[in-house]
Amino acid sequence: MPVPFEGLIPYTIMGAFFALAGHGVGFIRYWDNGWKNDRYDLDAFDQKMMKRDFNLTGTVRGQTSESVAPEHFKTIDEKTQRYYTPYRDQFFMLRERMYKGYVTGNWEFQ
Amino acid sequence: MLGQYFSSRHEWENQDNNPLPKEFEVDEVGATSAPLLSASYFIGARCRPYNDDFLKCKDENNGGTIECLKEGRRVTRCAVSVLTDLNKHCFDSFKLHYECLEQNNHHLGHCRSSEKIFNACVFQNLKLSKEIPGVAKDKQIHLNENPIYQGTSNDKKLSSDFLKVHEKN
Predict the structure, then answer these.
(1) Is residue B23, in this structure, part of any structural domain at all?
(2) CA-CA distance, B98 to B111, in Å (whole number)?
(3) What is the ipTM of this complex?
(4) Domains in chain B: how many in total?
């Protein structure tokens, strides 16, 4: 017995909203990367090279094939600054350890 | 340390108060990660003696942070020379390949079509070889006509467009 199409309308609407959310986030990420696809599965070397790319081009995903770096690149130095808080990295300790254990397989509980 | 709390009390100037001696100065490599990956085999082909020399020096001098500066400058200059030549002779196909790499998470297997165009240009103009160390010369992946990873459709489209434009000129 065929399903009357009126019965499928709610599912169509739900699906449309899910698609809107997913494709919307995907589009924003693509745009935010400078119209490039996300990088994924990055190791320490990739992270370091992406930092170097930023120092060379001034944009997060910028690329250049210039053979010689600008003069300021020789002495470039990145400094991260933090503000004072007595509880740094102390929030949600159990939750973060559960998460790290779930992701890395190391269940380190003291 | 107090600058963390009283940042405005520090006078800060963007200048190097302790510069390197002149003989240590070298032009750094200015290419970013994707062009470097794209050019890596050609850099290896031309700079192999300098790179081996540098690694041997590091091996013999327990890391050789100070001892191997000279060899390190030679490595840098050689890489810069390869990149300069690539930009001079193969700029367009170089760009085609590294932009494909940048779109595909730097996976060489996803960009074989543009790599083929780039290789042809480099083989013709720079006479550099492309060789994966430890693989037989006739088994190199860029010679394989039917590899497992065939590349993305976008790369194939951009490569054929590139060829069409360059055949017209």
Answers:
(1) no
(2) 9
(3) 0.84
(4) 1
